[in-house]
């Protein structure tokens, strides 16, 4: 079965995993604490990669946590009602993940000292990645074709709304000391230095061996094999044979596609 969108505050959200009550609660009542670390991105920007990196930095390269707990429990999604439960129960410091646009984010973030990492990716790769993800999952309305999806993407008529508005909103936070802007492309180009920059931003000093482990265990091929990180634990009814969160893992993969 394929679901349509769930509409909240004029934006389309995936039907599965979201409710109006959960979104309302997250957007208006959720209290972000000073000790929290918040990862924000537009969908398909490399969020799961960043979750893996942060978890590994957090555990100083020890892989026990990433091998035993699913990523959505290690760094729960703010906007899903169920995850809000994990967050209130979880210990501090907490890692949180969100695809929410800036204007819907709980206002408590803006007065807190929580560390925010905003991850961006070339929108053409975001578009192609999203097309395959929504086509091979049953989380929400399936795109009819890449061409049609392109038109919807430009109009912001895709899950979580407009990429352009998302970037514009979060960019307004870029001068804050507690905000780090990252790109998928810099992570691909120089993963070691970028991971070092992230650990410095988080105030977590790693020795070279610990950093080696972060690098190795968050690599595309290692993550693809880790069922706690690759969404393999998602119910079969929500995915198809070709579904994978770790699909290609490359920059400029959009060049393989032609949109006329
Ligand atoms: S989601 O569903 O919105 O949370 O998706 P998200 O995790 O943001 O993005 C999925 C894309 O990230 C790629 N990915 C990686 N790239 C490089 N290295 C690692 N370790 C990695 N893990 C995930 C994944 O393959 C998706 O991109 P595409 O272009 O579809 O391959």
TrEMBL record:
InterPro entries linked to this entry: P-loop_NTPase, Sulfotransferase_dom
Protein origin, superkingdom: Eukaryota
Enzyme class: transferase
Coiled-coil segments: none
Compartments it resides in: Cytoplasm
EC number(s) per entry: 2.8.2.-
GO CC annotation: cytoplasm
Keywords: Cytoplasm, Transferase
An example Gene Ontology molecular-function term: sulfotransferase activity
Principal place of residence: cytoplasm
Pfam families: Sulfotransfer_1 (PF00685)
Ranges of residues in domain Sulfotransferase: 34-252
Similarity comment: Belongs to the sulfotransferase 1 family.
Protein name: Sulfotransferase
Species of the source: Sciurus carolinensis (Eastern gray squirrel)
